[in-house]
Design a protein that fits this description.
The protein is α/β, with parallel strands linked by helices. It has a domain of 62 residues. Helix content is 30%, strand content 27%. It contains 7 helices and 9 strands, in the order βββαββααβαααβαββ. The longest helix is centred in the last third of the chain and has 16 residues. The mean pLDDT is 93.
Amino acid sequence: MLEVCNLACSRGDHQLFDGLSFTLSAGELLQVQGANGSGKTTLLRTLCGFVQPLAGNILWQGQDVREMDEDYYADVIYLGHLNALKDELSALENLRISAALAGCAVTQQQAIAALKRMGLRGRETLAVKVLSQGQRRRVALARLLVSNAPLWILDEPLTALDVGAVGLMQELIGEHLAKQGMVIFTTHQALAVADVATRQLALS
């Protein structure tokens, strides 16, 4: 379980929110909502350890994440607005390198299978710079398929995706939740997972 207790965050001199508390259990899907500038991305990055909160605690399985350090971050995968891909490398190379940096050993066969699942069959060895924006986003999202992290934190995962890819993304999230995974996400597009009630967290 993820527990957020009385969290406060700021951007520069501007406080975004304070006293924020919520929990997330295995198999649950949470959408963070709010106007632009309300702190959605800051909250997600704080949960990943990229931003330090002004106050409050984040607990994972009952333990403060500041005490767990790498044991917590190994259980989290974050995908942000940017795809974080190297243009000169192939889709396959990008996927394997990003997995290795996250401490996850992925074979070439596993990486190829993930890219095919994401609709990139035949493009695995192409340099990312020649791919469309939607295809580049699919390469980034393929990281989810080769990760063992139970907690997915996704900032606008549907950006640049066509209708078919959005449907695939909803399917992948559903499979992850069915395996008792957890997902926190933001989106400006509709995202609904079959047989799963999406919880809402509104930032004002």
